[in-house]
Write a structure and sequence with these properties.
- This protein has a six-stranded mixed β-sheet with strand order 6-7-8-3-9-10, sandwiched between helices.
- 36% of the residues lie in helices and 24% in strands.
- By secondary structure, it is of the alpha/beta class.
- It has a single domain, classed as P-loop containing nucleotide triphosphate hydrolases (Rossmann fold), CATH 3.40.50.
Length: 270
């Protein structure tokens, strides 16, 4: 069962969001429990990343609400948003490291930007975070000198630099080899537990997400199409869930984009 509002760090209620006349999310209700890893899954273009942006306050819903730790995000002023975002860590798709900075300086960036800590303490904290992701020995290197999987781990160390209550992951497994993928998945789970944080994992990778998530939401056609624990969804007979879990090419999510008849397109019909 999803957490109730008292147990949730993030609560999305009756949310509707559109880009102009194009509806993206409609009537979304989601709860992200404190201390839990929650996966938000769905196909490309289903609105998964839009949910992260709404939680972070980069965009505002047309109606409904997003609450983080009891505060309604879209009603906050700029200082309020800045204060709230200090409670968050964000792992962007493909890491988004600063290429002209060393690994050390990438992880130190949020500490220097958001705190007045002395440089000696920042030094020790950065090495601790890098040690947690297995990369303390790479602190002098630049992103171009490390692998893609290692860069993702540096980005994860940066995301947890401020010991956030909430960690947002945008497609953390994209482009990783099998070893790096497994390492990253295990780190997400272990770091979440060590920090006592809440992690929101936006992804379409079923195997890795089901292995570490406490709860899963499937998004389709702008709505929550299914939800439950990984165990419940693995055993589900729902057609949409089965198509996604089994990676079936056709089903409720059609392979073909809607079109008129093939014969008509070929000019065979008069």
């Amino acid at each position: 069962m999803p957490p109730n509002s008292e147990q949730a760090l993030v609560e999305i209620s009756g949310l509707n969001f559109s880009y102009g006349d194009r509806s993206i999310l409609s009537g979304i209700d989601m709860h992200f429990g404190r201390g839990k890893v929650v996966a938000v899954m769905g196909g490309s273009g289903s609105g998964k990343t839009t949910i992260l942006r709404l939680i972070g306050g980069q965009i505002r819903p047309q109606s409904g609400s997003v609450k983080v730790d009891g505060e309604t995000v879209h009603t906050l002023d700029k200082p309020g948003l800045y204060r709230m975002r200090r409670k968050m860590g964000m792992l962007f798709q493909f890491g988004a490291l600063f290429t002209d900075m060393s690994v050390f300086d990438n992880v130190a960036f949020p500490l220097r930007e958001h705190t007045d800590l002395p440089e000696a303490l920042i030094h020790d904290l950065v090495l601790m975070k890098l040690n947690a992701v297995g990369l303390r020995g790479a602190h002098k290197l630049r992103p171009a000198e490390i692998s893609g999987g290692m860069a993702r781990r540096v980005a994860l160390a940066r995301a947890i630099a401020l010991d956030p209550q909430l960690i947002l992951y945008d497609e953390p497994f994209a482009g990783l080899d099998p070893i790096s993928l497994g390492v990253t998945a295990n780190l997400i789970r272990s770091l979440n537990d060590a920090l006592g944080a809440t992690s929101v994992l936006v992804t379409h990778d079923v195997k890795e997400s089901f292995a570490i998530a406490d709860y899963v939401y499937f998004i389709a056609n702008g709505k929550v199409a299914a939800e439950g624990t990984p165990e419940e969804l693995t055993q589900s007979t729902d057609a949409f869930v089965r198509q996604f879990v089994d990676a079936a090419p056709d089903g409720p999510v059609p392979f073909h984009y809607p079109a008129q008849s093939y014969a008509s397109d070929l000019g065979l019909l008069k």
